[in-house]
User: Fold this.
Amino acid sequence: MQQNINNFAFIDGQNLNLGIQSLGWKLNFARFRKYLREKYCVTTAYYFVGYVPGNQPLYSELQKAGYVLILKPTIPDGNGNIKGNVDADLVLQTMLDISNFNQAIIVSSDGDFYSLVKHLYQNKKLRFVMSPYIDTCSSLLKKEAKERIVFMSNLRQKLEYK
Assistant:
């Protein structure tokens, strides 16, 4: 890893988890953090997720692996499903830290990050968007990331939890 490169990752945890599950495998969080550090010089990896009291073992695992957890309070929707929308938190943290990193990696397939990706790209602050799967990635996100998009579907052998 080059010493002078200081990249940050901003991870939409729910989007990442559901995307990987849709591929039929489970992500090894520790391997993923090591992969980001060694391959892309990620010094800080934020992991944004809605807080659910029963998920404390997962939160501990993520922190042990080296992620900075940003937990958002959750509320049930009309059907009783838990909602913890982290999009605004991810965008805000990215903009608060923009002068602290060389480039950002946005891990999500969510088109709501279109404007953030556009801004980072225009200001030469976007390393790339990392999407779990090409079919679930927003066409807006693909368009704005241009050639700077990576799909995780081909990383199963490196990052699968076994």
Remarks:
- The longest strand covers residues 42-50.
- The chain has a mean pLDDT of 92.
